[in-house]
Specification:
The protein is globular and about 50 Å long. The protein is built from 15 helices and no strands. The two termini are 35 Å apart. Among the domains are: 65 residues, no CATH class; 73 residues, no CATH class. The protein has 245 residues and is mostly helical.
């Protein structure tokens, strides 16, 4: 079980900086830059932030879908950004938006394929040994893994520590049993696992090895029932089918 300090060192050491430089850093989206500037102000303008988010239809849909998930336990669903701010507060909501954008742009596996020409063989090895840790197999082959690279890239963007940790640890389900791990990190990892389950089902795959590994711990962390999970996944599948996601 890794400590938070150990993970932070992985993301900020000289070796990580060298690896990031060798891969190349995708530019930060303009929306994220403007969002960070506005939130950093002493008195953020919620209307300006709402306009920024509304300009990205896919981001808005993903944000509302996540906020309305059972994980947040809202008594009534949010239909607008303003309602989401009123329910959650600007800082938690901005962290969620940042996480959604980072996940969309900084996809670790494509970056691994770009950096390591034989990465296809590694993916095959991961598929051949579904019970083993995905990232452990990557490390055996490349001394790096997609979760590490994604976390380092996020750090290089100046993304919050919570989001960086969640990206780095999204295959490490021991975090749910680590009393020192921030709750927000565990929630982000758990919600990511739920989203992956929905994506797998939408693709026609009835089995997810990652869900098998971490589902019980993730559901417990989010304090959901099995029926809550099925209801949320069903709503996600409806969004995927209608093009809302």
């Amino acid at each position: 079980m890794q400590s938070v300090q150990d993970v932070e060192l992985q993301l900020s050491g000289p070796q990580s900086d060298a690896l990031v430089k060798s891969i190349g850093i995708p530019p930060r989206p303009a929306v994220l830059l403007e969002l960070e500037k506005e939130i950093a102000k002493e008195d953020p303008d919620l209307r300006s932030i709402a306009r920024l988010v509304a300009g990205d239809v896919a981001l808005t849909a993903a944000m509302l879908r996540t906020v309305n998930s059972p994980a947040f336990g809202l008594k009534r669903p949010c239909e607008t950004f303003a309602q989401a701010v009123a329910m959650l507060g600007i800082k938690p909501l901005s962290a969620l938006i940042t996480d959604l954008m980072v996940r969309r742009v900084l996809r670790g596996i494509p970056l691994m394929m770009q950096r390591f020409l034989d990465y296809g063989k590694t993916l095959k090895a991961c598929n051949d040994e579904p019970d083993r840790s995905f990232t452990a197999i990557e490390h055996e082959h490349h001394q790096a893994d997609h979760a590490l690279i994604g976390g380092m890239m996020a750090r290089s963007w100046g993304v919050s520590k919570t989001v960086c940790l969640a990206i780095r640890l999204h295959h490490d389900y021991s975090i749910f049993q680590n009393p020192d791990m921030p709750h927000d990190v565990c929630q982000l990892v758990a919600m990511g696992l739920l989203a992956e389950l929905a994506i797998q089902r939408f693709a026609g795959l009835n089995h997810s090895s990652e869900w098998d590994k971490g589902s019980d711990l993730a559901i417990g962390s989010l304090m959901l029932t099995d029926q809550d999970v099925e209801d949320w996944v069903d709503r996600l599948l409806e969004d995927f089918s209608s093009g809302k996601a």
